[in-house]
Amino acid sequence: MGLLPSIIWLIYFYRRDCHPEPKSLIGRVFLMGIIISPIAVFLQLAFNNISSLYFFQANTAGFFLWAALVEEIVKFVAVWSVAIKHPSFDEPVDAMIYMITAGLGFAAIENILVLFKTIPDGINVTLGVLALRFTGATLLHALSSAVTGYFLALAWFSVRHRRKFIFGGIVFATFFHFVFNIFLATTENQTAGLAMATGLLVGLSLLVSILFQRSRDRSQNISEEIRLA
């Protein structure tokens, strides 16, 4: 059940690819997103334990910033280690698809752990949490990863500024991830916090839709150039 939100979003984004990627590679990237997630947890907890600064203690802005940064880097590493050198990685939109896939894999393990804790509270609570995770954290992971993916596409097809693009992508993804967590975790009025987080997701969805279309257009242009060559 914990996999369901990620699978649904994965199917949605996968079908938006004009030249769908090999399902076997998509599966490997998704699995790597799951496998690599404990590294993020370890780094988050380790940093929290060794930091003596209040700014970086649990449930503070500093901790949420660090947590978001670690998760975005880990998802990027998942794609870099599995897909980046694969022959199928040959179009700009591929970077977004693979990053989204890794993000959804990462979200899947989070969902499983969260839902496991709700089992004693009954099926209604579990289903309610599942619905919130589907429209909230799971979508957030997909969208923030998509932002990194767009910049990864720019980096991969513009070698001169590769590192700058990758760095910029992770920074922007971390920012959106951080703000989302802040809205939900530190806003005194939970309803207001949820409303602001929802607004952020709507805005980020529109941004990713634009970036996705740009990447698809560039991919189609590349395909046309290859066909005419």
Automatic annotation (TrEMBL):
It comes from Candidatus Yanofskybacteria bacterium GW2011_GWB1_45_11. This is Protease PrsW. GO terms for biological process: proteolysis. It is found in: Cell membrane. Belongs to the protease PrsW family. GO terms for molecular function: peptidase activity. The chain crosses the membrane at residues 25-43, 63-83, 95-116, 136-158, 165-186, 192-212. InterPro entries: Peptidase_PrsW_arch/bac (IPR023596), PrsW (IPR026898). The keyword Ribonucleoprotein does not apply. Keywords: Cell membrane, Hydrolase, Membrane, Protease, Transmembrane, Transmembrane helix. It comes from the Bacteria. It is a multi-pass membrane protein. One of its GO terms (cellular component) is plasma membrane. Its main location: membrane.
